[in-house]
Design a protein that fits this description.
The complex is a heterodimer of chains A (279) and B (279).
Chain A: H1 16-43, H2 46-54, H3 57-90, H4 96-102, H5 105-108, H6 111-122, H7 129-132, H8 143-168, H9 171-179, H10 184-213, H11 216-222, H12 232-241, H13 245-276
Chain B: H1 3-6, H2 11-40, H3 45-53, H4 55-88, H5 94-102, H6 109-120, H7 127-132, H8 141-151, H9 155-167, H10 170-177, H11 182-211, H12 214-220, H13 230-239, H14 243-271
Helix pairs in contact in B: 2-14, 3-14, 4-8, 4-9, 4-11, 4-13, 6-8, 6-12, 8-12, 9-11, 10-11, 11-14, 13-14
The chains are: A mainly alpha (279), B mainly alpha (279).
């Protein structure tokens, strides 16, 4: 195998064969072969069977619920994530370090725990739900519950991608805008926001991609009604439980293509950001 | 008014922004965290202790630790090997290899579990072969380990690749010139240079391994006392309307998340320059 690998520049460091071997073996065994099984299985019944399973009325309804909720949650996170990042970078206040550490909670908290905690809060007897219910805005066991769960899951992505870029925005540029007569609000919308935009879009895409695949936090709060509040990952599990492996694989293939598209978008955004920051 | 003060927002706006950010974080992060602890201790400490100490809970705790104890070292060895290969040698296709290593992050947890059912499940590619030999992978511990390895695959590598690429190979080449062997160079030169990033990657990898829900849910089969990890045990208890017990086990996962966050923040404060992605 090592023979097939030609280095562009020879290296004196040992371990080429070993590190190449471990990398290739583990990557193939854990990621590449298993993922190819999804494509193979989804193709096993032919094109028509694939389309029937992947684009049945129930599947399409689940894509709408899943991607719609993920988009909405990512949009909410874009707004509030920017706010949190702004406050953390620009202002000093008590317990700032604690707040900053807490932002990463959704990364550290198991999703099932997030799911039951949010359900307890938003159920009609819960701390938040009891105020929403009389207003005619029930959240738990409704599509709105999915958005709440995905907003929780996606919160850190926008904050953590915007923070470093916001810290780099040069104060000189803001001063220049002020000297030229711009108001503080104009400076924000015309100077700061355009600089932040690629990072904001990256955070938005990361939150969306994570939300679209999310399962653990959603199933407790969603109600899981087919056609109304059934997310695609749950539909895959339902198909599996009915031993419809090919159907599950076909829906998973659609999900994988969306994931690959998101990866492409993220790569393009990264190039855009590097050009904008002039590095 | 001087330029310096005009670069800042008026005190009122600043206070408003800080309050809004803190209110959002309280609503989205602190309340769910508090909800778990309140629900867990609703019937007193005695009931809490009983819930986390009964045999099924203890077996779930034990299984969670065991799965993480297998998956995390495997991905650590892979992460170090892959980073060595990518950072110390020049070859074509490096960006593609890095994308493939990060791929599991973009895949829905449910799909991550599905791939192993398609390979090793009763109707999977190797299903019959495994049944003939009485080897259990799906609905057994090996399946849980495989799914966990898949979802935590990139954590260590993505911390080390940027750092080791930046550090180059001059140090290692110097050590080799001075007569050190390959392993001596790795243990005494490379490892001390990357230890904090490695620790950070292992920490995030472990948190995800212990908290993973979607992927292990697909391969577990939910056999009480046998294939239920802690997050799965939380789900089983919750679905049986045994809420206090569900939240009691969940509270242990909250403690794990808080410890992870504390260690993560400590590493970020002291060694920020050496750490790459924060999630």
């Amino acid at each position: 195998m090592v023979g097939a690998l030609t280095l562009r520049r020879p290296s004196a460091l040992p371990g080429l064969g070993l590190s190449f071997g471990i990398t290739l073996f583990w990557l193939s065994f854990i990621v590449l072969i298993p993922l190819s099984a999804v494509f193979a299985k989804s193709a096993s019944g032919g094109w028509d069977a694939f389309v029937d399973a992947a684009f049945s009325a129930r599947s399409i309804a689940s894509y709408k619920v899943t991607f719609g909720a993920a988009l909405l949650a990512a949009a909410i996170n874009a707004v509030f994530g920017l706010l949190v990042a702004w406050v953390l970078v620009r202002y000093e206040f008590p317990f700032k370090r604690l707040v900053s550490a807490l932002v990463d909670l959704p990364f550290a908290l198991p999703t099932a725990v997030a799911g039951i905690a949010l359900t307890a809060l938003y159920a009609d007897t819960g701390l938040i739900g009891r105020f929403l219910e009389p207003l005619g805005l029930p959240v738990a066991y409704k599509p709105a519950g999915i958005v709440v769960a995905l907003t929780f899951i996606g919160l850190p992505f926008v904050v953590r991608t915007v923070e470093p870029v916001l810290a780099e925005v040069s104060r000189e540029m803001e001063e220049a805008a002020l000297t030229l007569g711009a108001s503080r609000l104009q400076t924000f919308t015309r100077v700061i926001l355009p600089t932040l935009f690629p990072a904001l879009a990256t955070g938005f895409t990361l939150a969306f991609a994570r939300g679209a695949g999310e399962y653990g936090s959603v199933i407790f709060i969603a109600g899981n009604m087919p056609f109304r509040s059934e997310i695609t990952p749950l539909l895959i599990i339902t198909q599996l439980e009915e031993f419809d492996y090919a159907g599950a694989a076909s829906i998973a293939t659609v999900m994988l293509f969306v994931s690959f598209a998101m990866l492409l978008v993220l790569n393009l955004l990264q190039h855009w950001q590097q050009r904008r920051l002039g590095t | 008014m001087s330029g310096k003060t005009r670069l800042r927002e008026p005190a009122g706006i600043k206070a408003l922004l800080i309050l809004a950010a803190l209110a959002y974080i309280t609503l989205m992060l602190l309340l769910p965290l508090g909800a778990v602890l309140v629900e867990a201790l609703k019937k007193g400490f005695g009931v809490w202790l009983e819930s986390v100490n009964e045999p099924d809970a203890r077996s779930a705790i034990w299984l969670t630790i065991m799965v993480a104890a297998i998956a995390v070292p495997l991905n650590t060895v892979f992460g170090v090997a892959a980073s060595w290969f990518i950072s110390k040698y020049d070859f074509r296709g490096k960006p593609l290899l890095i994308t493939l290593i990060e791929l599991p992050f973009s895949v829905s947890p449910v799909v991550s579990g599905l791939v192993f059912v398609l390979l090793f499940g009763a109707q999977g590619w190797f299903g019959e072969w495994l049944i003939d030999r009485d080897i259990e992978i799906i609905f057994a511990v090996p399946g849980l380990v495989l799914a966990t390895v898949f979802v935590t695959f990139p954590f260590v590598a993505r911390q080390l690749i940027p750092l080791m690429t930046m550090q180059g190979r001059a140090n290692e080449e110097a050590a080799l010139t001075l007569g050190a062997s390959g392993w001596q160079t790795f243990w005494h030169v490379t490892l001390p240079n990357i230890r904090f990033a490695l620790l950070y990657g292992v920490l995030l990898c472990n948190a995800r391994a212990m908290g993973e829900f979607g992927a292990v849910s697909v391969v577990s089969g939910h056999i009480r006392g046998e294939t239920n990890t802690m997050p799965l045990h939380v789900e089983v208890l919750y679905n049986e309307y045994n809420f206090v017990a569900a939240f009691a086990v969940a509270s242990l996962l909250v403690v794990l998340a808080l410890i992870t966050l504390a260690l993560k923040s400590a590493l970020e404060w002291r060694h920020r320059d050496e750490l790459a992605a924060r999630f």
